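note to self: the first set is below, dont mix up w the second
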Amino acid sequence: MGILETLGNLAHQTAFFGLSFGNYAMIVVACVFLYLAIAKEYEPLLLVPISFGMLLVNIYPPIMEEGGLLHYFFLLDEWSILPSLIFMGVGAMTDFGPLIANPMSFLLGAAAQFGIFAAYIGAMLLGFSDAAAAAVSIIGGADGPTSIFLAGKLGQTDIMGPIAVAAYSYMSLVPIIQPPIMKALTTEEERKIKMEQLRPVSKLEKILFPVIVTIVVCMILPSTAPLVGMLMLGNLFKESGVVKQLTETASNAMMYIVVILLGTSVGATTSAEAFLNWTTIKIVVLGLIAFCFGTAAGVIFGKIMCKVTGGKVNPLIGSAGVSAVPMAARVSQKVGAEADPTNFLLMHAMGPNVAGVIGTAVAAGVFMAIFGV
């Protein structure tokens, strides 16, 4: 009898007896995400840790409770530490040369932020509070770290998980979501437009750019300093050429460590209880609408610039104004090459792409200023 009781107790200690139908559903979702990341290579650096965090929390929910490993990872998200460090790594890996060579790219990056404010209005109409609507709407920028940063600053930690998962999911699905919108809004002739080679950018320009952007943006919107400041610091590491060790660390070792911590903690916010509800569904839908609106706005503004410049701007680069770096720029290149294999738009699209990163951070700063954060 003692052996049977022991075996019974051991059996009840397994996860099979404690999981709900929702937990099993989320485990299936996690496995689908893992498949997309590994088999289809949809942003595996993001999706693998996110989906595995999702898997862990739905098998063993206490891992996200106080005292659990991933709870402490998530505190680094709430404190805005990991999103800011991600921005430093992005800055250290990013070449702002295309944006400096073509300052008009700022306009395309700004146009793509339209999706954020469209989603804000939509969230308000669906019953979200002002602060929650702002936190949800930033998904339209396709920028996971900024989404986490703003949700934390606005005190929306209860919906931070769905917001972060939606943002990172849409970042990963850029190659699927954007091309149909881009093709629907442009003609074959527009997609074939070849743009002139960008002018060379001097080393001095590249060094001054992060300093000037930091001063201008952070003086106007001081609350953006953690994101914009770290983005520009990382870029200054890269462009100064005198701190190669810091550049290497920020763009490689530190970046990958932070991605592991942030990805698994974000995935771990998707327990069945927290994720399978109408609020989450509304957030995911609003995020998709925002992202589509942002892509469309960038392409439409690209068409306007095409007309104004007499056909010198390929409208496809406007879609890169969402800040999924560098995936959105690669999609612009891919769609352009489908129309004309000799067309090379990647460097032109990188201008709006990095402008979108700055634009999304500025949009977050505007919301924080509005709500007095």
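second set (the one i keep forgetting abt)
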Amino acid sequence: MTIKEVEERTSLSRSIVRFYEKEKLIEPSRNESNGYRDYSESDVENIKKIAYLRTLGISIEDIRNIISEKVTLQETLERQNEVLKSQITDLNKAKLMCEKMLEEENISYEKLQVEQYVTELQDYWKDNQAVFKLDSVSFLYIWGSMPTWTTITSLCLIIGCLSYSKLPIEIPVQWSDGVATSLVNKNWIFIYPVICIIIRYLLKPFIYVKLQMNNHYGEIITEYLTNYLCFTVLSIEIFSILFTFKVVKSIVVLLFVNTVVFIGLLVVGLTKMDLRGKGFL
């Protein structure tokens, strides 16, 4: 059957079905006559099973392990049940605290006394470490913000303007072993901020779709990667100028450091967010 028929049979969108395919959770055959995917009844049932398990908060990786028989469904459900119990306990505690606070007349931020509701602050903070883990990744929000992109793009333009009069007629845009292999007119220096604009307004939507993460964190990661690409453009612009004046010779080290630092910070941030445990991955 066609993907349109699968949508009708499962009541799930095409993008979700494609995502499961991309994650290798289902592998439909191909129609030899036209090359299109040919979904079987088994594929339809698997899609419904996967979608149902996702609604229980079970991660894609756990579902993959179930399908490949690395773990059993029962083991996964037992583990997820404990996770949900813990989350429910935490939510009930928060609910009781809210109700207790609402018993006060005209409660306000100015009059709030934390010690009135919490006897042992140190233990209370320790019990709520999951919340502070999210707070500790504020760098992701800062780096993935519009002001950051604006700053990077502005720097590209400012650096281009300040260096333009001092640049030779032609500047390098490709290098190999410390030697310029391709030269362009120095007006090219103003292409870098244009590239930043293209990345944000044309490439960014494409990145978001490719991430297949229709949630708040998907937006943050998309913004992060967008600004990372723009930062790389800024780095290349600076390198081009420094190379022209024979201050540096190799761009490989620069790009490697950029990648290690910012991808490393992204990984740390995602780990702290514990997305897998929350069922987003």
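remember for set 2: The longest helix spans residues 73-102.
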